[in-house]
Design the sequence.
């Protein structure tokens, strides 16, 4: 509401220690002149809000100094400045520096993380204060879709294409499979063309049987991490068990092309975090940085030690009685700590004010069955490797001071393939240069300005071998096929995360987190009321209060497709295909058109003899060079 005070106030401009956040005392009606005046100084408004009092000082808790060049501003007799030397009330105008270069991009991928395993989705069981800080102060992507498995999601992210259009829609690569992401220009190469330094840390899982398929041959300037699908957290060994009964074991940790034996025994999450911090601290910030931080966490490791974490972190979760779930919670907590340290490093390097941070999970958690890690997708149906929401509706968020309408939950459709054109656009590229064969769409304007998604349909996946498929069209989702043995993975799994023994959600721990403290230097942080509201909005609620183990959609029995209105039925409980035959037929026909463009899966027979690590000093290495 407008203020009526007639106090006199002079134009006051102050900034935080990062020299990026400005407070302007001005007459509300003259705000447009302030904006124009700041733009002359190469500053652009990020958001505007009012203080409930007249003062020329910024809020408590801000350290500030005088803006460089302010003396010349004070002596400026231009109309826009002179008009402000009149009775006025304080308008707080938050602006960020318009950098000469493209924004830094930090893209963080969690592996096999469950929907219910970030606390901003409503569960108190596993606090994730740093991830929550980004979520509440950015945009929570509550309809962000990924592929059901690791390799297909990463292939789609890097190419901007549905996996069915590059033959990558099937089972993920095992280490001895002579296959890689098909040769084509991918995300880091596009960003290099825009002047980016490109760094990869962590998991690759897009092929290494020839060196040309490894990260530094695919557009990354450096890579520290592993090439296969998963490793143990301390010994960094990949153990693959093949259908013929043969087991291959080998070390898989690389510094570019060299084996990083010196890191053996160190916890993988800490290694990746330290490397990300080193990259940020040593980065020449006159050039934009693309940092792809693809965690091992929280994927399971090898047989006998599926979940691993430092004991001091495990001890924080004594309220979780199931021992494997308790260790899983510690793994999540270590990754959350990593996120906070990375955000803090960006702030300390003075890069945060011109950064985009994305956090996603590559697929849902395998609560049961193969690759079990005890994660939870509650209350969503299904798990990893299924096309139910629990397998493909992934945790997602974006934070950046470039967002003009942050602190919100988006239910707009988004697919992992959208990140290539979206980030390319955010980096200043013209998406025309990406060609016309991409399936991903540019969502940058939608994310920045809170506009509707340009997507109205989204192919979840088609697996021609398993005869499964799913398609979203607006609020509708059609799903064909069944998962697991006789539908054993068509139900609901995982800890609901709600227990009287859980610690109460602590907003103070979020506000005191490294991430919150750092991002508060660049944007107005969310209020307590906003945090509560956002958490409520981000929490998925089923139609049935009781966690169900069966619905009227049982494809293993009926052999028929199921149709859901995901907006009203996010937990896929009420099959509407019988009473909405027109919608079912329409979406099925769209799916048939997608099937016509499908490239058969490129999976190759495993070469367990050629790839055997014993031939390469017990390391997994390119074997067809």
Sequence:
């Amino acid at each position: 509401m407008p203020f009526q005070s007639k106090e006199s106030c002079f134009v006051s401009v102050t900034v935080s220690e990062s020299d990026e956040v400005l407070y302007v005392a001005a007459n509300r009606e003259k705000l447009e002149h302030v904006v124009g005046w700041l733009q002359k100084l190469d500053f652009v408004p990020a958001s505007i809000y009012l203080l409930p009092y007249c003062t020329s000082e910024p809020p408590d808790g801000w350290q500030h100094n005088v803006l460089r060049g302010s003396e010349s501003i004070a002596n400026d007799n231009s109309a826009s400045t002179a008009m402000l030397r009149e009775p006025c009330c304080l308008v707080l105008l938050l602006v960020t520096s318009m950098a000469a270069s493209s924004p830094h991009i930090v893209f963080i991928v969690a592996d096999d993380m469950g929907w219910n395993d970030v606390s901003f989705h409503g569960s108190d069981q596993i606090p994730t204060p740093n991830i929550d800080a980004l979520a509440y102060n950015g945009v929570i992507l509550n309809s962000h879709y990924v592929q059901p498995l690791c390799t297909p999601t990463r292939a789609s992210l890097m190419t901007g294409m549905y996996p069915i259009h590059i033959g990558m829609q099937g089972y993920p690569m095992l280490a001895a499979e002579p296959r890689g992401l098909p040769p084509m220009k991918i995300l880091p190469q596009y960003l290099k063309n825009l002047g980016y330094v490109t760094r990869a840390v962590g998991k690759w899982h897009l092929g290494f049987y020839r060196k040309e398929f490894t990260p530094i041959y695919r557009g990354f300037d450096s890579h520290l991490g592993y090439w296969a699908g998963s490793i143990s957290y301390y010994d960094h060994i990949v153990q693959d068990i093949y259908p013929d009964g043969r087991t291959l074991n080998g070390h898989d940790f690389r510094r570019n092309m060299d084996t990083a034996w010196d890191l053996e025994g160190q916890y993988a999450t800490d290694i990746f975090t330290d490397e990300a911090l080193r990259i940020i601290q040593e980065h020449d910030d006159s050039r934009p940085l693309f940092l792809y931080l693809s965690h091992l966490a929280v994927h399971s490791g090898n047989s006998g030690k599926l979940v691993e974490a430092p004991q001091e972190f495990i001890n924080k979760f004594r309220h979780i009685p199931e021992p494997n779930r308790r260790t899983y919670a510690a793994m999540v907590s270590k990754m959350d700590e990593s996120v906070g340290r990375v955000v803090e490093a960006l702030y300390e390097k003075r890069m945060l004010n011109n950064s985009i941070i994305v956090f996603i999970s590559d697929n849902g958690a395998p609560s049961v069955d193969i690759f079990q890690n005890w994660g939870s997708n509650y209350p969503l149906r299904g798990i990893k490797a299924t096309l139910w929401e629990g397998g493909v509706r992934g945790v997602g968020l974006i934070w950046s001071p470039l967002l003009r309408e942050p602190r919100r939950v988006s239910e707009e459709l988004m697919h992992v393939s959208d990140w290539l054109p979206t980030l390319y656009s955010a980096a200043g590229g013209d998406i025309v240069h990406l060609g016309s064969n991409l399936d991903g769409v540019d969502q940058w304007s939608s994310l920045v300005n809170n506009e509707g998604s340009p997507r109205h349909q989204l192919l979840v996946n088609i697996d021609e071998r398993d005869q499964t498929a799913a398609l979203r069209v607006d609020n509708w989702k059609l799903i064909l096929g069944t998962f697991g043995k006789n539908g054993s993975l068509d139900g609901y799994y995982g800890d609901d995360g709600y227990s009287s023994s859980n610690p109460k959600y602590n907003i103070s721990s979020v506000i005191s987190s490294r991430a919150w403290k750092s991002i508060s230097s660049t944007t107005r942080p969310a209020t307590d009321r906003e945090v509560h509201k956002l958490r409520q909005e981000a929490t998925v609620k089923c139609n049935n209060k009781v966690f169900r183990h069966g619905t009227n959609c049982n494809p293993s029995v009926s052999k028929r497709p199921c149709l859901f209105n995901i907006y009203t039925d996010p937990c896929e409980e009420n099959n509407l295909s019988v009473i909405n035959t027109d919608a079912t037929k329409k979406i099925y026909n769209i799916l048939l058109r997608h099937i016509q463009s499908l490239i058969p899966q490129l999976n190759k027979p495993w070469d367990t003899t050629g790839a055997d690590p014993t031939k390469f000093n017990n390391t997994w290495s390119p074997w067809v060079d």
In short: The two ends are 70 Å apart (CA to CA).
